[in-house]
Amino acid sequence: MKSAFLVLVYLAVTRGLLRIPLMRGKSARQLLEEKGLLEEYRRKFPYSPAAKFEQSEVPMTYDLDMTYYGVIGIGTPPQFFKVLFDTGSSDLWVPSISCTTSSCDDHPKFNSSASSTFQAGTKPFYISYTSGFAEGSTGYDTVKIGDLCVEHQLFGLTETEAVFMGSVPWDGILGMAFPGMTSDGGTTVFVNLWNQGKLPQNVFSMYLSSSVEGSVLVLGGTDPSYYTGGLKWIPLHQASNFWNILIQSITINGNTVACSASCEAIVDSGTAAIIGSSKDINNINGWLGAMSEQYDYASVSCSNIDLLPDIVFNINGHSFALPPSAYVMKFGSGCRTGFAPGSWILGEVFMRQFYTAFDVGNNMVGFAQAV
């Protein structure tokens, strides 16, 4: 009888949720390496994952190691695009059929004349990058995400893009931060989903798997089948358009190694690593016996991973332990830690270990141990 009750509770909690499969394909780093262009790219565009949070426009930079993306449709009938669901930005944009740069050549392009529901926008579209820019026009159309449709969604149609965009595995971006971040002053896709009555809760969540398949974006709530224990909810820190929280400290074996006086961090699915101040990141890597290498990464011996300690993030009275299996990443024949210098960001390295929920209505982020 008890098991039947639990099944009913589970169905009640998960009914109405929309689960969007996320794929983990080759990263831009791998694609550039295959073309022999990685060194040239790194020389021209130094790694700066925090830049998208520091410039005055609606700026973005893209991490070469980002690999998670899902498929959406735009228009009637829908034209399909692979998009990065990015909690560190707010705009939706895809390449347009008018895109003239080579970066668009290997990506599908939106043809507005092929959609019976398209309406042209009046504002231009522009986003700055540390490594270039994307610009074009705006339009309104129906956006299809899984079984849900968002009507009259404003989005960007790029006509010129930075050259490096040709080496990313996705076609465009669907921003999941707050509307104040949009470059065109529009309403975000998720807020429109909620305003149009398409979701049971004003919440979305993410499960990021280490495998090629199995990752998922959940719209309208959380799915307990992807985590164990309860979600630990953390209020957002100060008024911001980002998903920013306060970390009280970071410890190794009970010793504070970073954020000794607390630090503000942005929870960002659009950043691969965990980013932090140079002093703190160097200290963490020092405790791990990691050796500095090019492009602000630090290497460790792959044979010693099991001997490395957990790194504990103390947030809002909760402790989140990150084991070495989560923060050490294999690259070719070597291994690197998943830490890099910059403004504090909890990226994919953290989110793979902890199922992450974003409560838009209550301005909170929740973490639970991922399965």
TrEMBL record:
This is pepsin A. It holds the Pfam family Asp. GO terms for biological process: digestion; proteolysis. Disulfide bonds join 99-104, 259-263, 302-335. The lineage of its organism: Eukaryota, Metazoa, Chordata, Craniata, Vertebrata. SUPFAM superfamilies: Acid proteases. PROSITE patterns: ASP_PROTEASE, PEPTIDASE_A1. The active site is at 86, 268. The gene is LOC115583129. GO terms for molecular function: aspartic-type endopeptidase activity. Residues 1-16 form the signal peptide. Keywords: Aspartyl protease, Digestion, Disulfide bond, Hydrolase, Protease, Signal. Shows particularly broad specificity; although bonds involving phenylalanine and leucine are preferred, many others are also cleaved to some extent. It comes from the Eukaryota. Belongs to the peptidase A1 family.
